[in-house]
Automatic annotation (TrEMBL):
Coiled-coil region list: none
Pfam families documented for this protein: L6_membrane
Provenance organism: Aptenodytes patagonicus
Membrane topology type: Multi-pass membrane protein
Record bears the keyword Transport: no
Protein name: Transmembrane 4 L6 family member 1
Family of the protein in this entry: Belongs to the L6 tetraspanin family.
Residues spanning the membrane: 12-30, 50-70, 91-115, 161-180
Keyword set, alphabetical order: Membrane, Transmembrane, Transmembrane helix
Cell compartment(s), UniProt: Membrane
Gene Ontology CC, one term: membrane
InterPro entries in the cross-refs: L6_membrane
Length: 203
């Protein structure tokens, strides 16, 4: 089994997931495609945390690029040096995977908090911009009849719930893939060391 191929496969998947996270986070800034709520600072505090752009996006793109860069199919060599090159490359990918773990973990936490806290909106009862569902601890997600309390932005509850849920799922998949690469990188590094030791003994 070649651990480099597995790492590249993980890298390409992370690349797609990171780009989707960035797009989903950008959409959160523009409810119903309108820009005025962002310019008027009427966005929820968890929307502005950049968890999809920074966490699930750029911090995951870093390990994705590293994993894809493990292009050599030889499990015992890298960059023309068969003694330790591949093992060093695979072990360095473990460090990159930890960066992805941090980024995806941040995306998961903020998405979960955003879902639990609820949207920031203008309500017809208080006639003001508030967080009407904070005390429900996420219970509002199943009380669809209360969603109409938010008048502006229109359908903001559905918009936030959908996008935060997408980011939560994307962050979870990224987290799992990075964890898989940590195991793969450690095993690949040990494989490279074993191969180099075998080559030395044959000499």
């Amino acid at each position: 089994m070649c651990f480099g191929r597995c790492a590249r496969c993980v890298g390409f998947k992370l690349l797609i997931l990171a780009l989707l996270s960035i797009v989903a986070n950008i959409l959160l800034y523009f409810p119903n495609g309108e820009t005025r709520f962002a310019s008027e600072h009427h966005l929820g505090k968890y929307v502005e945390c950049l968890h999809g752009i920074l966490g699930g996006g750029f911090l995951v793109l870093i390990p994705a690029a590293v994993f894809i860069g493990l292009h050599n199919d030889d499990c015992c060599g890298c960059f023309g040096h068969k003694d330790c090159g591949k093992s060093c490359a695979m072990l360095s990918s473990v460090l990159a995977a930890f960066v992805g773990i941090l980024g995806s973990g941040y995306c998961i936490i903020i998405s979960a908090l955003g879902l639990s806290h609820g949207p920031y909106c203008f309500t017809h009862l208080q006639r003001n911009w508030i967080y009407p569902f904070t005390e429900s601890s996420g219970g509002y997600l199943f009380e669809y009849n209360k969603w109409s309390e938010c008048q502006e932005p229109h359908n903001i509850v559905q918009w936030n719930v959908t996008l935060f849920s997408i980011l939560l799922v994307l962050g979870g998949i990224e987290f799992i893939l990075c964890f898989i690469q940590i195991i793969n990188g450690i095993l690949g590094g040990l494989c490279g060391l074993c191969c180099s030791h075998e080559e030395v003994s044959h000499l």
